[in-house]
């Protein structure tokens, strides 16, 4: 095992990688444990299937993506560098077959000439039919890294909402300082860090004195909510941030209820970004072999995890900080054989194998690094045996969160890196390494400056970024990788330049540089620096692409949270749900509501049996249907009637108290929006009904009219849909049934058609009664307080047993209203007018109702379609809603289209399928035979045009 | 996105429903001679500015007030926010 | 003949960890809507002050909360009678809301760890005497902070879904707390 002695390791634990059992320690990541076990080869690259090893030590890792089994469920594309080891962890490599060592697709590497950037724009084009049959399936199999499980994710995810005065992102030196200072100033602080432990890069140092002291200060600071294992992944408008906490992924056996992840919606007054800096590599030939890492990662594995990275370790650096890393490694007992420094203006350090003015040009070693080729200042080359190489071309402030809202970072020549733009979100301030203030002293100083604190500046070795020698690539033969995860090389950047894709935005999309799951964290700068050199422009002028959330990948499960399966939306139960269920109801989703669709009686095996029976029961006896879901809006005020005159096309000012009227609502563009009724209970009190689907939009519309168009009218609106359980009681025996239950004279003289009243039941319970009919039968709607919904439903059916009282559902409700030619949602489909509905005369010209003016547009009038009825010529034929109407012999093309069917059902009273629909020249075509044609199912059915009132055309039953 | 409700303070945009340009408040007179042209203008013509935009939001999951929000369409900065109905100002006094 | 029993409750003395959730059925709810110019007179006729924006006051038996500009909701013991228009005449309009909402009282420990999982309330400012309309799992509810309880008003049809949301949130919170 490759362990260094200075780190006190946690308890030993067992894990499995690619079927092999190994030992690690509590506190390891999968990456550190694999390295400790001498496992160098952990992945195959995306396109070329080149052998790859661990490259970094944090979430910026591009190579070491594995599939981990989390409670038996595979999770692909997990970075081994952030996966905390637990006892029994099972992980496997991806993108290699049959094994990591002998990957068949490695042939792609040999054929790399053909797989250069943009190859898919130029290949797989011919012959065209090969695309679907051959190319696409092959590409799909070859593409991607991990494989998705097809099973449902067994984990639970939750969401939460947090508010604070100061959000501190990053718990390293600067972040800890900021959190403590802000808390001591009295702010409510939230501190987030993506790692399990606070400290950031301080954890990669041998001396943790300052860290320990600061953590103690944090403990004592009070109002700081610390969220570790929490990534702030996105900046949203106005100080809102998205974050994900990983709750159980580091545990072997956590209960599912503990939730795997929590998605946080954080609203912060101010945000301090202490997100640190990420190291950038240098591009040179074969710079991607297992064993080649970022220099800071080598330091992390050695000093934090106690892993000896290799027997003969080298560094390739261009700045002073590289020497600090070298000394730290040496102090930890690592065998350093060479420190290859690109700087030309420094003297070799006597305590290190320091070679100045030198570069690494190439490497050897297929499955693991064996040697490196070093060039000196006279371009003489020497091969050095080496099994671990740490590379550092400098540090990039981690400023992604400043760019999510569209601010484009600026290049700072003094530190050779991009820093946050001036027009970053106003609530954000950047401190520490994220602001280019790299060492511990500078971190503390930057926070003092921001918050007005006066913390002592701790002594530290200063890494002077201004002494860096800017180097992004070393010319040579062999592939020099820029983007490791998407296999983009310097040659691809050159190809992009050659093809004219020289802007960074084009470079990105053409080569896919920066488009992998690491969003180019270790590749963007090198790529655009190479392009800058090719175009002869400065990096400032070349610019950089911007960043988008999420900073690191976020599981869709976390975004969904609880909204899965039946919990996706609330379920709305009607007040008679239980009683209906007990009577055999099958329910249908109507928006969020569950409504009884039909009631299954013993012996019924097909829904048509139930529905036909219910419809017939209503027309021959009496039926009871729960219609609570239709919107009910209370409209009160001195100007209530005048208000209704504005929102409805027809008039309401003269509606008498105790009467109800049908109302048609238009949109301002003249299209029919909704229909319903308005009942005048008192001079200044109406109850308006709407269709179920439009309950919310109509209420919204009415508030718009009241508040925005007619503020001079005294009217007060409130929804009462839920408060009343409402039942349609319909059929020739409905009056008798109602009279048994309601304490009111409901004779035809005392309670005419369209009457309404506030009243009581015979047991004293308050109620409302409306004599309105959707079925065309003698009918009432009875409303009682919703808590008595079940009871009322049951009592009506029991008391009405001898009258044939039958519960009916939405299907029978639909059959009945179609038989009577009543319009519903299908007819008010957002393209039809009052004229189409045959209600043209309802649009009053005596008042300026909404929609009146534009309803008279010639285009709407010329349409000429009217709502009529249709029956199949052959009663055995079924009709299909949406079918289009054509003359016999006319070709089935739009030019010959005469209209379409809107509502279709089987009518037990007519004995065949019937339909309502819109037809041009409807009056002239009465009795004509046309065809109902549907390209959807290929049907072409002869139909005869008839009245939409299939039953009781004179409407005599209504007024009985 | 947060909308600074004049009575309730900053509230998340998810509590609201967006309607469109505040010009919708200026409904023409339906009986004027030029009503047809005026209504076409009212219903269909929008200026779609790059910058400050006055628009209507309905606080459906809150107090059911309609708000006139002046928002920069580029930066989403909210420059102003008022109750559409002056009678609602004050809220409780 | 007309034996009317009430619909079953959704939560009866439901104990979830250190909390107890109770549906209170002996309760009526009325909305009162008025105008600025009539406010003083309406105030005179009421036996208690009308709360300011975002405020409420009351106890288990009765109280008032602000719901919209110049609109309040009043809760009181249940009566089988509609609100009378005579209470305020033309000065204010009343609408019966009683069965449109179900009232759930939450008592026991501080409910903040659960509320922060459910809704976007800024809990630091949500002290006794506060009311907010907010969303819990896409359900619009009123949440009132009173001295001895939290009072949640949820639309009747969605009460089952809300109790499910509360139950799950408590389960998750307790399971997570047990990990530490």
List keywords for this structure.
heterotrimer, B: 93 residues, mainly beta, Folate-binding fold, C: alpha+beta, 5-stranded antiparallel sheet, 3 helices, 11 strands, 19% helix
CATH architecture assignment name of chain C: 2-Layer Sandwich
Run of helices and strands of chain C: EEEHEEEEEHEEEH
Q: β content of chain C, as a range?
A: 35-45%
What would the average pLDDT of chain C be, to the nearest integer?
Answer: 94
Count every helix of chain B, treating DSSP H or I runs of 4 or more residues as helices: 1
When the domains of chain B are counted, the total is 1
What does this structure look like?
The complex is a heterotrimer of chains A (960), B (93) and C (180). By secondary structure, chain A is an alpha+beta fold. Chain A is 22% helix and 27% strand. In chain A, strands 8, 9, 10, 11, 12, 13 and 26 form a 7-stranded mixed beta sheet that branches. Chain A is elongated. Chain B has one domain: Folate-binding superfamily (Folate-binding fold). Chain B has 93 residues and is mainly β. The mean pLDDT of chain B is 96. In chain B, the strands form 2 sheets. A 4-stranded antiparallel beta sheet of chain B has the order 3-4-5-6, with no helix packed on it. A two-stranded antiparallel ribbon of chain B has the order 1-2. Chain C is of the alpha+beta class and 180 residues long. Chain C has 3 helices and 11 strands. Chain C has helices at 39-45, 112-118, 159-179, and strands spanning 14-16, 19-24, 28-34, 56-58, 63-68, 71-76, 92-96, 101-108, 130-136, 139-145, 150-155. Chain B binds chain C through residues 7-8, 12, 14-15, 61-65, 83, 87-93, and chain C through 35-36, 39, 50-54, 66-70, 120, 133-135, 140.
Blueprint (SSEs and pairs):
The complex is a heterotrimer of chains A (960), B (93) and C (180).
Chain A (H helix, E strand, L loop, with lengths): L11 E6 L2 E6 L4 H7 L6 E2 L6 E2 L12 E6 L2 E7 L9 E5 L13 H4 L8 H4 L7 H13 L14 E13 L3 H12 L4 E4 L16 H13 L2 E4 L2 E7 L3 E7 L14 E13 L3 E3 L12 E3 H10 L8 E5 L2 H12 L4 E6 L12 E2 L3 E6 L6 E5 L5 E5 L2 E4 L3 E3 L2 H4 L6 E3 L4 E3 L8 E3 L9 H12 L29 E3 L4 E2 H9 L5 H8 L12 H12 L3 H4 L13 H5 L11 E2 L3 H6 L2 E6 L2 E7 L7 H14 L1 E5 L5 E5 L3 H8 L12 E7 L5 E11 L2 E5 L5 H15 L6 E4 L4 E7 L3 H8 L14 E5 L5 E5 L8 E7 L3 H11 L5 E3 L2 H10 L32 H4 L2 H5 L2 E8 L11 E4 L11 E9 L4 E9 L8 E6 L4 E8 L14
Parallel strand pairs in A: 1-7, 8-9, 8-13, 9-10, 13-26, 15-22, 16-17, 16-22, 17-18, 29-31, 32-42
Antiparallel strand pairs in A: 1-2, 3-4, 5-6, 5-7, 11-12, 12-13, 14-23, 19-20, 20-21, 24-25, 27-28, 30-31, 32-38, 33-36, 33-37, 34-35, 35-36, 38-41, 39-40, 40-41, 43-46, 43-48, 44-45, 44-47, 45-46, 47-48
Helix pairs in contact in A: 5-6, 5-10, 7-8, 11-12, 11-13, 17-22
Chain B lengths: L1 E4 L3 E4 L4 E5 L13 H10 L7 E7 L7 E7 L5 E6 L10
Antiparallel strand pairs in B: 1-2, 3-4, 4-5, 5-6
Chain C lengths: L13 E3 L2 E6 L3 E7 L4 H7 L10 E3 L4 E6 L2 E6 L15 E5 L4 E8 L3 H7 L11 E7 L2 E7 L4 E6 L3 H21 L1
Antiparallel strand pairs in C: 1-2, 2-8, 3-6, 3-7, 4-5, 5-6, 8-11, 9-10, 10-11
Helix pairs in contact in C: 2-3
